[in-house]
Design brief:
Helices cover 56% and strands 7% of the residues. By secondary structure, the chain is α+β, with helices and mostly antiparallel strands. It has a 4-stranded mixed beta sheet with strand order 2-1-3-4, with helices on one face. A hairpin with a 2-residue loop joins strand 3 and strand 4. The chain is globular and about 50 Å long.
Length: 222
């Protein structure tokens, strides 16, 4: 194994995509192993690689890390994206947790039954525009800085730009009432590491399609 982190998950976004985003934003190259069959998944469980029999799995610094939040916290701390002190870290945690709540709705959307898709899409739009995005619009307007916390690039910024782009895929005009977030999106998208991640051919995964949904169900549900 090389010195690069190694990520084991499906060839799709899911719970691994935020990890890919954070590593990429930190300028870290990584390797990926894609699960395609239930047998592959059962093998890594039998090997003892999955503490709670769940992926994502990230092998980094000699550890086999599981649990998305723990992995993200470690990466943020390791690459100096987690604030300068405990108070900044608490703010970053609060912002990230809020964004993750919104991202969970997006994560589950492809698995909605056809008759529920329109309702669930409306829920994503309503929560984004009325609960989550107004918080960050207000924060950026109040302190007038480029980044959410401590005027320094952090995990919270990465999580927010990921969420903005994910919601825009479903609701293209979602930022129409949020000028601060529009400017934030442009700034973040032009940061060299993020700009690179947004280019074709990067490890960023496309929106989930029917094949991805079928693979998830085949590996984890059957």
């Amino acid at each position: 194994m090389s010195g690069r982190p190694r990520l084991t998950y499906l060839n799709g976004r899911g719970r691994m995509e935020s990890i890919r985003w954070l590593l990429a934003a930190a300028g870290v190259e990584f390797e990926e192993i894609f699960l395609e069959t239930k047998e592959q998944y059962e093998k890594i469980i039998k090997d003892g690689s999955l503490m709670f029999q769940q992926v994502p799995l990230v092998e980094i610094d000699g550890m086999k890390m599981v649990q998305t939040r723990a992995i993200l916290s470690y990466i943020a701390g390791k690459y100096n994206l987690y604030g300068k002190d405990l108070k900044e870290r608490a703010l970053i945690d609060m912002y990230v947790e809020g964004i993750i709540d919104l991202m969970h709705m997006i994560l589950m959307f492809p698995f909605s039954p056809p008759e529920a898709k329109e309702k669930n899409l409306d829920s994503i739009k309503e929560r984004a525009t009325n609960r989550y995005f107004p918080v960050f619009e207000k924060v950026l307007k109040k302190h007038g800085q480029d980044f959410l916390v401590g005027n320094k690039f952090s995990w919270a910024d990465v999580q927010l730009i990921e969420a903005i782009l994910a919601v825009e895929e479903k609701v293209p005009a979602v930022l129409s009432g949020f000028p601060q977030l529009q400017a934030f999106k442009i700034r973040m998208s032009n940061m060299p590491t993020i700009k690179k991640f947004l280019q074709p051919g990067s490890p960023r995964k496309p929106p989930p399609d029917e094949h991805y949904v079928e693979t998830v169900l085949k590996i984890f549900m059957e």
